[in-house]
Design a protein that fits this description.
The chain is an alpha+beta fold. 33% of the residues lie in helices and 29% in strands. The protein is built from seven helices and 15 strands.
Length: 269
Amino acid sequence: MSGIVITCPDCSTRYKATAASIGDEGRTVRCVKCGSTWFVPAPDVIDALIADPDALALADNVAEHTKPPVTTVPVSDFRPEPNPVMDETPPKLSRPAPPIGADVVMRNHVDSEKLARRRRTIRFIWGVPLVLVIIAAIIAVLNRQDIVNRIPQMASIYQSIGIEVRAGGLEIDPPQARTVLVDGEPVIRVESVVRNLTRQSKTVPLIELTLHDADGQGLLQWYVEPNPSRIEGRGRLVFTSEIMDPPTGAVGLRYNFVDDMELAAASGL
Protein backbone atom coordinates (compact mmCIF):
# COMPACT_ATOMS: atom_id res chain seq x y z
CA MET A 1 0.00 0.00 0.00
CA SER A 2 1.70 3.15 -1.20
CA GLY A 3 -0.40 5.58 0.82
CA ILE A 4 -3.13 5.72 3.47
CA VAL A 5 -5.55 8.37 4.67
CA ILE A 6 -5.92 8.99 8.40
CA THR A 7 -8.73 11.09 9.91
CA CYS A 8 -8.79 12.98 13.21
CA PRO A 9 -11.59 11.44 15.35
CA ASP A 10 -12.44 14.87 16.86
CA CYS A 11 -12.32 17.45 14.06
CA SER A 12 -12.35 15.04 11.06
CA THR A 13 -9.25 16.65 9.50
CA ARG A 14 -7.82 14.18 7.03
CA TYR A 15 -4.13 13.52 6.33
CA LYS A 16 -2.24 11.40 3.86
CA ALA A 17 0.65 9.25 5.07
CA THR A 18 2.85 6.49 3.77
CA ALA A 19 3.07 2.99 5.11
CA ALA A 20 6.71 3.57 5.99
CA SER A 21 5.83 6.58 8.15
CA ILE A 22 3.29 4.53 10.14
CA GLY A 23 5.59 1.54 10.62
CA ASP A 24 4.93 -2.13 11.17
CA GLU A 25 3.76 -1.63 14.77
CA GLY A 26 1.62 1.46 14.20
CA ARG A 27 2.15 4.83 15.91
CA THR A 28 0.34 7.45 17.93
CA VAL A 29 -0.21 10.73 16.08
CA ARG A 30 -1.47 14.22 17.01
CA CYS A 31 -3.79 16.46 14.99
CA VAL A 32 -2.23 19.77 14.07
CA LYS A 33 -5.60 21.52 13.97
CA CYS A 34 -7.22 20.49 17.26
CA GLY A 35 -4.36 18.79 19.13
CA SER A 36 -6.15 15.44 19.62
CA THR A 37 -4.05 12.26 19.65
CA TRP A 38 -4.98 8.75 18.54
CA PHE A 39 -3.29 5.50 17.63
CA VAL A 40 -2.95 4.53 13.96
CA PRO A 41 -2.41 0.76 13.43
CA ALA A 42 0.05 -0.67 10.97
CA PRO A 43 -1.13 -0.63 7.31
CA ASP A 44 -1.49 -4.44 7.20
CA VAL A 45 -3.75 -4.35 10.26
CA ILE A 46 -5.82 -1.56 8.69
CA ASP A 47 -6.35 -3.66 5.55
CA ALA A 48 -7.51 -6.65 7.61
CA LEU A 49 -9.88 -4.53 9.77
CA ILE A 50 -11.47 -2.88 6.74
CA ALA A 51 -12.31 -6.35 5.39
CA ASP A 52 -14.07 -7.23 8.76
CA PRO A 53 -16.16 -4.32 10.24
CA ASP A 54 -16.73 -6.20 13.54
CA ALA A 55 -13.04 -6.71 13.96
CA LEU A 56 -12.52 -2.96 13.28
CA ALA A 57 -14.87 -2.01 16.15
CA LEU A 58 -13.17 -4.52 18.43
CA ALA A 59 -9.75 -3.15 17.48
CA ASP A 60 -10.86 0.38 18.28
CA ASN A 61 -12.06 -0.74 21.70
CA VAL A 62 -8.85 -2.62 22.41
CA ALA A 63 -6.67 0.25 21.16
CA GLU A 64 -8.52 2.66 23.45
CA HIS A 65 -7.69 0.61 26.58
CA THR A 66 -4.38 -1.00 25.62
CA LYS A 67 -2.31 1.44 23.65
CA PRO A 68 1.23 0.27 22.95
CA PRO A 69 4.06 2.32 24.55
CA VAL A 70 5.14 4.18 21.44
CA THR A 71 6.29 7.74 21.07
CA THR A 72 3.63 10.27 20.13
CA VAL A 73 4.38 11.93 16.85
CA PRO A 74 2.49 15.06 15.73
CA VAL A 75 0.42 14.73 12.63
CA SER A 76 2.34 17.71 11.31
CA ASP A 77 4.80 15.08 10.10
CA PHE A 78 2.12 14.09 7.58
CA ARG A 79 0.61 16.20 4.85
CA PRO A 80 -3.13 17.06 4.63
CA GLU A 81 -5.19 15.16 2.13
CA PRO A 82 -5.20 17.83 -0.63
CA ASN A 83 -1.40 17.49 -0.86
CA PRO A 84 0.18 14.57 -2.73
CA VAL A 85 1.53 11.61 -0.85
CA MET A 86 4.59 12.61 1.18
CA ASP A 87 7.78 12.12 -0.83
CA GLU A 88 10.97 13.33 0.73
CA THR A 89 13.28 15.11 -1.68
CA PRO A 90 16.76 13.68 -1.46
CA PRO A 91 19.34 16.19 -0.27
CA LYS A 92 21.41 17.90 -2.91
CA LEU A 93 24.94 16.63 -3.00
CA SER A 94 27.69 19.01 -3.93
CA ARG A 95 29.71 17.90 -6.88
CA PRO A 96 33.30 17.15 -6.13
CA ALA A 97 35.80 19.53 -7.67
CA PRO A 98 37.05 18.20 -10.98
CA PRO A 99 40.60 16.95 -10.89
CA ILE A 100 43.22 19.41 -12.12
CA GLY A 101 44.79 18.08 -15.26
CA ALA A 102 48.22 18.72 -16.68
CA ASP A 103 46.76 21.13 -19.25
CA VAL A 104 45.31 23.30 -16.47
CA VAL A 105 48.61 23.36 -14.61
CA MET A 106 50.46 24.28 -17.77
CA ARG A 107 47.98 27.04 -18.62
CA ASN A 108 48.29 28.52 -15.12
CA HIS A 109 52.06 28.43 -15.44
CA VAL A 110 51.94 30.22 -18.80
CA ASP A 111 49.58 32.87 -17.40
CA SER A 112 51.91 33.45 -14.46
CA GLU A 113 54.86 33.87 -16.80
CA LYS A 114 52.92 36.38 -18.92
CA LEU A 115 51.99 38.38 -15.82
CA ALA A 116 55.61 38.39 -14.62
CA ARG A 117 56.86 39.58 -18.02
CA ARG A 118 54.25 42.34 -18.08
CA ARG A 119 55.34 43.55 -14.65
CA ARG A 120 59.01 43.54 -15.70
CA THR A 121 58.14 45.54 -18.82
CA ILE A 122 56.24 48.13 -16.79
CA ARG A 123 59.14 48.46 -14.33
CA PHE A 124 61.55 48.86 -17.25
CA ILE A 125 59.37 51.50 -18.93
CA TRP A 126 59.25 53.55 -15.72
CA GLY A 127 62.76 52.73 -14.53
CA VAL A 128 64.76 53.79 -17.58
CA PRO A 129 63.45 57.41 -17.68
CA LEU A 130 63.94 57.68 -13.92
CA VAL A 131 67.57 56.54 -14.18
CA LEU A 132 68.18 58.97 -17.05
CA VAL A 133 66.71 61.84 -15.02
CA ILE A 134 68.93 60.97 -12.05
CA ILE A 135 72.05 60.80 -14.25
CA ALA A 136 71.15 64.13 -15.88
CA ALA A 137 70.66 65.73 -12.46
CA ILE A 138 74.07 64.48 -11.26
CA ILE A 139 75.78 65.81 -14.39
CA ALA A 140 73.97 69.14 -14.01
CA VAL A 141 75.16 69.50 -10.41
CA LEU A 142 78.78 68.48 -11.07
CA ASN A 143 79.07 70.77 -14.08
CA ARG A 144 76.85 73.53 -12.76
CA GLN A 145 79.46 76.24 -13.06
CA ASP A 146 80.30 75.44 -16.67
CA ILE A 147 76.59 75.46 -17.46
CA VAL A 148 76.12 78.82 -15.75
CA ASN A 149 79.15 80.28 -17.56
CA ARG A 150 77.63 79.31 -20.89
CA ILE A 151 74.03 80.08 -19.91
CA PRO A 152 74.05 82.77 -17.16
CA GLN A 153 70.26 82.52 -16.78
CA MET A 154 70.74 79.09 -15.23
CA ALA A 155 72.28 80.66 -12.12
CA SER A 156 68.86 81.70 -10.80
CA ILE A 157 67.49 78.18 -11.40
CA TYR A 158 70.32 76.58 -9.42
CA GLN A 159 69.97 79.09 -6.60
CA SER A 160 66.20 78.52 -6.43
CA ILE A 161 66.80 74.87 -5.52
CA GLY A 162 69.54 75.69 -3.00
CA ILE A 163 72.63 75.07 -5.16
CA GLU A 164 75.11 77.92 -4.89
CA VAL A 165 76.79 79.04 -8.11
CA ARG A 166 78.67 82.16 -9.16
CA ALA A 167 78.15 83.84 -12.47
CA GLY A 168 81.90 84.60 -12.66
CA GLY A 169 82.90 81.05 -11.83
CA LEU A 170 84.52 81.95 -8.46
CA GLU A 171 83.24 81.44 -4.94
CA ILE A 172 84.50 82.12 -1.43
CA ASP A 173 84.22 79.60 1.37
CA PRO A 174 82.64 81.15 4.49
CA PRO A 175 85.60 82.95 6.19
CA GLN A 176 86.73 81.85 9.64
CA ALA A 177 87.37 84.86 11.92
CA ARG A 178 89.07 84.54 15.30
CA THR A 179 90.73 86.91 17.75
CA VAL A 180 94.41 86.37 18.51
CA LEU A 181 96.99 88.33 20.48
CA VAL A 182 99.94 89.83 18.59
CA ASP A 183 102.49 91.56 20.84
CA GLY A 184 99.84 91.67 23.53
CA GLU A 185 97.31 93.40 21.26
CA PRO A 186 94.04 91.82 20.06
CA VAL A 187 93.98 91.10 16.36
CA ILE A 188 91.15 89.64 14.24
CA ARG A 189 92.53 87.09 11.80
CA VAL A 190 90.37 86.09 8.85
CA GLU A 191 91.08 82.97 6.81
CA SER A 192 89.22 81.57 3.82
CA VAL A 193 89.53 79.86 0.43
CA VAL A 194 88.64 81.10 -3.04
CA ARG A 195 87.62 78.34 -5.47
CA ASN A 196 87.54 78.33 -9.26
CA LEU A 197 84.50 76.30 -10.26
CA THR A 198 85.31 76.37 -13.97
CA ARG A 199 87.91 74.62 -16.09
CA GLN A 200 89.40 77.94 -17.28
CA SER A 201 91.99 80.07 -15.50
CA LYS A 202 90.33 82.98 -13.65
CA THR A 203 91.54 86.34 -12.30
CA VAL A 204 90.56 86.82 -8.68
CA PRO A 205 89.09 90.27 -7.97
CA LEU A 206 89.39 92.15 -4.68
CA ILE A 207 87.62 90.61 -1.71
CA GLU A 208 85.52 92.92 0.44
CA LEU A 209 85.25 92.05 4.15
CA THR A 210 82.93 93.87 6.59
CA LEU A 211 82.61 93.49 10.35
CA HIS A 212 79.07 94.17 11.54
CA ASP A 213 77.21 94.34 14.85
CA ALA A 214 74.13 92.43 16.04
CA ASP A 215 71.84 94.81 14.11
CA GLY A 216 73.73 94.22 10.84
CA GLN A 217 75.32 97.67 10.85
CA GLY A 218 78.81 97.75 9.34
CA LEU A 219 81.53 98.65 11.85
CA LEU A 220 84.66 98.20 9.76
CA GLN A 221 85.21 97.48 6.07
CA TRP A 222 88.44 96.60 4.24
CA TYR A 223 89.67 94.90 1.08
CA VAL A 224 91.95 91.95 0.49
CA GLU A 225 93.95 91.56 -2.72
CA PRO A 226 94.54 87.82 -3.25
CA ASN A 227 98.04 86.68 -4.07
CA PRO A 228 98.47 85.20 -6.62
CA SER A 229 95.74 86.98 -8.50
CA ARG A 230 94.86 84.07 -10.84
CA ILE A 231 93.53 80.60 -10.14
CA GLU A 232 93.80 77.71 -12.56
CA GLY A 233 90.72 75.76 -13.61
CA ARG A 234 89.23 73.82 -10.70
CA GLY A 235 91.94 75.35 -8.49
CA ARG A 236 91.81 76.99 -5.04
CA LEU A 237 93.54 79.93 -3.35
CA VAL A 238 93.95 80.36 0.40
CA PHE A 239 94.01 83.93 1.69
CA THR A 240 94.54 85.47 5.16
CA SER A 241 93.88 88.97 6.48
CA GLU A 242 94.42 90.60 9.88
CA ILE A 243 92.84 93.69 11.44
CA MET A 244 94.53 95.44 14.36
CA ASP A 245 92.48 97.03 17.13
CA PRO A 246 89.09 95.61 16.00
CA PRO A 247 85.95 97.56 16.91
CA THR A 248 83.92 96.47 19.91
CA GLY A 249 80.48 95.00 19.32
CA ALA A 250 81.45 93.11 16.15
CA VAL A 251 79.53 89.83 15.98
CA GLY A 252 79.73 88.85 12.31
CA LEU A 253 81.61 89.11 9.05
CA ARG A 254 80.26 89.73 5.54
CA TYR A 255 82.30 88.95 2.43
CA ASN A 256 82.01 89.53 -1.30
CA PHE A 257 83.96 90.00 -4.53
CA VAL A 258 84.39 93.56 -5.77
CA ASP A 259 85.59 94.40 -9.28
CA ASP A 260 87.49 97.58 -10.20
CA MET A 261 84.40 99.37 -11.50
CA GLU A 262 82.46 98.79 -8.27
CA LEU A 263 85.46 99.88 -6.22
CA ALA A 264 85.81 103.06 -8.29
CA ALA A 265 82.11 103.83 -7.87
CA ALA A 266 82.36 103.31 -4.10
CA SER A 267 85.38 105.65 -3.96
CA GLY A 268 83.59 108.33 -5.99
CA LEU A 269 86.20 108.28 -8.77
